[in-house]
Specification:
The protein has 142 residues and is α+β, with helices and mostly antiparallel strands. Strands 3-4-6-5 form a 4-stranded mixed sheet, with helices on both faces. It has a two-stranded antiparallel ribbon with strand order 1-2. 23% of the residues are buried. A hairpin with a 6-residue loop joins strand 1 and strand 2. The N terminus is likely disordered. It is globular, with a radius of gyration of 16 Å. The chain has a domain of 86 residues: 2-Layer Sandwich (Translation Initiation Factor IF3), CATH 3.30.110.60.
Length: 142
């Protein structure tokens, strides 16, 4: 994604994210491609691993002056469906922690971290997860 928007392969013009989503951005939350589910339960070492994976990436969605609208939720939902692990940049939230938790709960994603005004969200793909989150072995170390 370029800083000026997405390149539309049909017209060759740059478009904003909400324009590219088309009907998905204006669709009610219940009729989207992916229904909001319960967020995955992650332990601290798993969140740390996902933050490490997300470190080199740039925010895929930016929340503007209007705050978290249905179009923003649709964009986050589509990005999570495509990438599983994304960053979302908040613009001057009054309470960063509450805004991050509300955002994660609204799209059914796990909150992996909050760095400055950037939220790291994770939601595995419902059919074919691409990110293998590490698991701790049940055997106790000796």
């Amino acid at each position: 994604m370029s800083p000026n928007g997405l390149l539309d392969p049909r017209s060759g013009k740059r478009t904003l994210c909400t324009q590219r989503l088309g009907d998905l951005a204006s669709a009610p939350i219940a009729t989207r491609r992916h229904a909001v589910t319960t967020p995955p339960e992650l332990e601290g070492f798993q969140r740390k691993y996902l933050r490490q994976l997300a470190h080199p990436s740039r925010p895929m969605v930016q929340v503007g002056e209007a705050g978290v609208t249905d179009a923003v939720r649709a964009a986050i939902d589509a990005a999570l469906l495509d990438h599983e692990l994304i960053k979302v940049r908040l613009r001057r939230p009054e309470n960063k922690q509450k805004a991050a938790q509300d955002l994660a709960g609204g799209v059914g994603a796990a909150l992996c971290g909050l760095v400055g005004h950037t939220v790291i969200l994770y939601r595995p793909h419902p059919e074919t997860p691409r990110i293998a989150v590490p698991e701790r072995s049940s055997a106790a170390p000796s």
